Task: inverse folding
């Protein structure tokens, strides 16, 4: 099955457009081939996925390229709950891969890795956001790692790592190296 010139609108989100979307449908399964979604000149978003009609389970892959983080949260949030890994970044651009698996009535289980640039990070324990941030994030249902990122804290340039465990009540680690 092919759909050309697709436009999808969701509440509180910018419309997404695709020149061509192809899918294969069988009696118990729908497979969405990789499609490029455009969102009004703000980077591209590749999406693909599978949906099992019998178990009502889905697996979706999203691959943004130089995509604004706020818009990615908004776009993903229009379809399902955005990954918690995006909560620490309040602005900037993202490129990477996000995978979600969701069974019937369960919450989505997100995993992935992405690079961020021109970002603003809001990390627990810091009184102000880190600006001009760039780095790499890996995450899954067990936690979040932001390794070797750089940013500005006021007028000071820092290099840092951040780790957060997803277990309730677990600790978070933030290691900062300050440059004069």
Result:
């Amino acid at each position: 099955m092919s759909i050309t010139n697709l436009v999808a609108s969701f509440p509180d989100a910018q419309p997404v457009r695709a020149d061509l979307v192809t899918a294969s449908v069988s009696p118990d399964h729908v497979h969405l081939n990789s499609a490029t979604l455009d969102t009004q000149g703000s980077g591209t978003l590749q999406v693909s996925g599978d949906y099992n009609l019998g178990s009502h389970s889905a697996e979706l892959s999203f691959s943004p390229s130089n995509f604004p983080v706020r818009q990615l949260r908004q776009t993903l949030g229009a379809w399902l709950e955005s990954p918690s890994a995006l909560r620490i970044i309040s602005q900037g651009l993202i490129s990477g891969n996000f995978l979600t698996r969701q069974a019937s009535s369960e919450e989505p289980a997100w995993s992935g890795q992405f690079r961020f640039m021109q970002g603003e990070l809001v990390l627990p324990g810091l009184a102000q956001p880190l600006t001009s941030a760039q780095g790499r994030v890996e995450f899954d249902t067990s936690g979040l790692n932001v390794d070797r990122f750089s940013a500005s804290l006021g007028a000071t340039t820092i290099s840092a790592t951040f780790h957060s465990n997803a277990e309730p009540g677990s600790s978070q680690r933030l290691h900062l190296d300050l440059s004069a």
The chain has a mean pLDDT of 86. The chain has one helix and twelve strands.
